Amino acid sequence: MPPLLSRLNRPIVAILVVTALAGFVRFFHLAHPGEFVFDEVYYPKAGCILVGWSDETCRVDSGDETYWREHQWDVGSWVHPPLGKWEVGLGIKAFGMDPFGWRVTSALAGTLVVFFSAILAQLLFRRPIWTLVAGTLLAFENLNVVMSRTALLDVHLELWVVIGFVCFVMDRRWIERRQKEMPEPEPEPRDPEPGAGSADGGSEYGGSTVLPAPPVEPVEPPVYSPVWRPWRFAAGAALGAATSVKWSGAMALFAAVVLSYMWEAARRHNGSISWPKAFWRAFARESFGLALAFVLVPMVVYMAVWLPWLHHFGWSLELWWKNQVGAFDYHRNGLPWTKLDPETGAFTPTHPYYSRPWTWIFLIRPVSFYVKDVGPDIQQILAIGNPAVFWAAVVAVPYLAYAWWRRRDWRAGFLLVVFVCQYAPWFAVGRPTFFFYVLPLTPFMVLAVTYGLVHMSDAKIVVRDRSTGDVAMNPETGEPAISTYYPYRPFVWIYVAAAVLLFVWFWPVLTAGQISDVRWRLIVWFNRWI
User: Contact 431/335 with Cβ under 8 angstroms?
Assistant: First the structure.
């Protein structure tokens, strides 16, 4: 490899390159459009209130908003915890109550999502090229770009989730290194039983009898498992912050607990300890530490986020508890899917862009955030995923399950469990849902796709004997019949290029670019996307 390429072929270079790309597409022309977009009517106003600005400056201009400001120190977004609104408010404090000010921290959060996802890719794949690929796919993922350019909470939730799982994987590395440093125990053979040998305790020649040592019982290897694991506690703090942006962050906490028990059981499993026994030992010895890291620490973070609210209302825990109960009741009963139309007598959807969770990964019903007719042209912001990523994930996620079972690859198991534990609970949620709720899953969808690309890139053609299934021998060389080239590599790079080109093609409807109606129809492919 040439010296220049050798210097560039480093993880830090790959991470910085994809972060720069992500920052460019997220900050470019960020103040357009110069008005509220979709639910920006809530969160910028809430953030502005939190940093102490006036009703006039915060654009609190309705009776409902005035009521919620007085009773909840918020507007209609009071049903969500305050951390994400504080983050939006910090941008407003720094740059003013204008489109750039209320969107800047979302753009920063979206850029950092790519940065930390690239770090996670490096931890998983250990090769800068795949760090670059994963970061590029996420930097140019359509939904991530849209959500990074609007002042909604979901990108802030996504950031804390990714940080949490970076810390979580770091904890795995931390504990494995210390496990390797522990000395292996030396088995102690049992003493011979008294009286063994001849009747007089000696040999037939009058000497003592030396008997072979009895079999040595298997000894359980020591398992290094302290309560204080700094990376685990950092993961709990980050995932607690995610839950302090939206309660759905608790799904990521659930994934961390499930993975912790799985990994700790795997550390204790060996030839002498069965899986059930290993699990129960892990459960008995790790539950206290896990409760501290993934229950107590998130609770402390959650309550710390509410301290300004409690101070504002005179430290009334009763009012705070009523707020929590009211928010829970709203999420459970406050949003019906359909409503009776008195004119037709039929039940009609209460919002045109509600979608069931099973439709998200198939891109069946994206959400239009903004539409404006400009004569014969149109401007739109369509919250839609990159088809190259989402539709590839339909195959890549099941492949994780196959690789986990067949290869016993912990990386596949990690990505699969994180994805499933964050996705499956949505199917049990009764309240209406939007497509963009899938955002915290997208980094793990990208990593799942990258995992499949790694295997495709490294795959070779192998000729096997039909009768035995063994690798056949090349009659000309006498060596195993395995190709010396990688036949699927071109498809990998074609796929990555296609993902970037699709992003470029969709760019106008991700950023409210002014395009003709004909061009718009070439981008918005299906009626359900309108």
Answer: yes
Burial of 432 (0-12, 13-18, 19+ CB in 10 A): middle
Contacts of 497 (CB under 8 A, 6+ apart): none
Closest listed residue to residue 100, CA positions, set 109, 108, 91: 91
Dump pLDDT digits (tens) for 108-155.
Answer: 999 999 999 999 999 999 999 999 999 999 999 999 999 999 999 999
pLDDT in tens, 258-290: 999 999 999 988 767 888 999 999 999 999 999
Q: Are 417 and 254 in contact (CB under 8 A)?
A: no
Neighbours of 344 (CB within 10 A): 8
Residue pointed to by tokens 């007598």: 345
Nearest CA among 148, 134, 117, 25 for reference residue 504: 25
DSSP symbols for 222-266: P----S--HHHHHHHHHHHHHHTT-GGGHHHHHHHHHHHHHHHHH
Listed in sequence order, the residues at least 6 apart from 18 whose beta carbon sits closer than 8 Å to its beta carbon are: 114, 115, 118, 131, 132, 135, 136, 138, 139
Residue the block writes with tokens 């939730």: 157
**CA distances, 348 to each of 82, 337, 339, 432, 494 (Å):** 33, 8, 5, 13, 44
Residues 6+ apart with CB under 8 A from 351: 432
Question: How far apart are alpha carbons 422 and 252 in whole angstroms?
Answer: 6
Cis geometry, peptide bond prior to residue 33 (ω within 30 degrees of 0): yes
Q: Is the Cβ–Cβ distance between 218 and 271 less than 8 Å? A: yes
Q: What is the DSSP letter of 98?
A: S
**Token digits for 492?**
């990998």
Dist. CA 159–CA 87, nearest whole Å: 12
Residue 213: φ, ψ to 5°: -65, 140
Tens-digit pLDDT profile for residues 484-519? 678 889 999 999 999 999 999 999 999 999 999 999
Could you give the CA distance from residue 273 to residue 358 in angstroms, rounded to a whole number? 40
Q: What is the end-to-end Cα distance of the chain in Å, rounded?
A: 49
Burial bucket for residue 222 (CB in 10 Å: 0-12, 13-18, 19+): exposed
**CB 97, CB 132: distance < 8 Å:** no
- Residue 164, phi-psi category: left (phi > 0), alpha (psi -120 to 50), beta (remainder): alpha
Give strand pairing partners of 379: 372
**Which distant-in-sequence residues (6+ apart) come within 8 Å of 181 by Cβ?**
none
